[in-house]
């Protein structure tokens, strides 16, 4: 049957709506067909009130979570808690590709500066250019003279490197030091899955670009 997840259900046994539910779970990153099937059956085991609460939480998160007007990280307020905090080193900005990378950096407990989330990387093959990520917003933050260093912490893969180099070329004429996290993080890996000690070493060994 077109549009169904292959091999999951015999449609003569299970309802079409259940197959659609499995498809939705299977479309999530990192979720295979068997996991999607287990999730679907779990949802069906919930009471009506539990299922309604589950669904309303998704809708509430979708409606309530937005981008910080300063750093572009996810928040439920106009300015996120990191940007509005008074204990951060405001002279350093760490640039990451995704909000989940902020979590990875914070886990190291060694970085106390600010962040800027690009929400992607430059990827010509995927038709993602500088105007499609938050580069313009980053540059606009650097005009006040408060920032002395920008740490490029995009992933050490081809697209992450290209993005770091592009942004570095934009920042250097402003007289601000640009550094790159060291390769304590394996090439081709993601910050999201990197252990705390490795992130610490990468920060410690960052170099100027």
Give a description of the structure.
- With 209 residues, this protein is α/β, with parallel strands linked by helices.
- The protein has two domains: 16-64, RecR Domain 1 (Helicase, Ruva Protein, domain 3); 74-208, Dna Topoisomerase Vi A Subunit, Chain: A, domain 2 (3-Layer(aba) Sandwich).
- It is 40% helix and 13% strand.
- The chain contains eight helices and seven strands; from the N terminus they run αααββαβαβαβαβαβ.
- The protein has a five-stranded mixed β-sheet. Strands 1-2 form a two-stranded antiparallel sheet.
- α7 (158-171) links the parallel β5 (149-152) and β6 (177-180).
- α1 packs across α2.
H and E order: HHHEEHEHEHEHEHE
Give the total of beta strands. Answer: 7
Largest sheet: 5 strands, mixed
At the third CATH level, what is the topology name of the largest domain? Dna Topoisomerase Vi A Subunit, Chain: A, domain 2
Radius of gyration: 21 Å
What is the rounded distance between the termini? 54 Å
- Shape type: elongated
CATH uppermost class of the largest domain: Alpha Beta
The helix fraction, in percent, is 40-55%
* Portion in beta strands: 5-15%
Give me the secondary-structure category: alpha/beta
What count of helical segments does DSSP give? 8
What number is the mean pLDDT? Answer: 89
Number of domains: 2
Strand order of the largest sheet: 4-3-5-6-7
Low-confidence stretches: none
| CATH architect. name of the largest domain | 3-Layer(aba) Sandwich
């Amino acid at each position: 049957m077109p549009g169904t997840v292959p091999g999951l259900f015999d449609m003569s046994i299970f309802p079409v709506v259940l197959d659609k539910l499995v498809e939705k779970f299977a479309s999530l990153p990192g979720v295979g067909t068997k996991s999607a099937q287990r999730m679907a059956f779990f949802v069906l085991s919930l009471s009506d009130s539990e299922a309604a609460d589950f669904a309303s939480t998704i809708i509430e998160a979708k409606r309530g979570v937005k981008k910080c007007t300063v750093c572009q990280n996810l928040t439920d307020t106009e300015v996120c808690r990191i940007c509005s905090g008074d204990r951060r080193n405001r002279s350093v900005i760490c640039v990451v590709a995704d909000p989940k990378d902020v979590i990875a950096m914070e886990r190291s407990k060694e970085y106390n500066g600010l962040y800027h989330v690009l929400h992607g990387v430059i990827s010509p093959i995927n038709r993602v250019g500088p105007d499609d990520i938050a580069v313009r917003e980053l540059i606009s933050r650097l005009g006040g003279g408060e920032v002395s260093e920008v740490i490029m912490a995009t992933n050490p893969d081809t697209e992450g490197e290209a993005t770091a180099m592009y942004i570095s070329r934009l920042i250097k004429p402003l007289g601000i030091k640009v550094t790159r996290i060291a390769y304590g993080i394996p090439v081709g890996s993601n910050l999201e899955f990197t252990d705390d000690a490795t992130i610490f070493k990468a920060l410690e060994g960052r170099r100027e670009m």
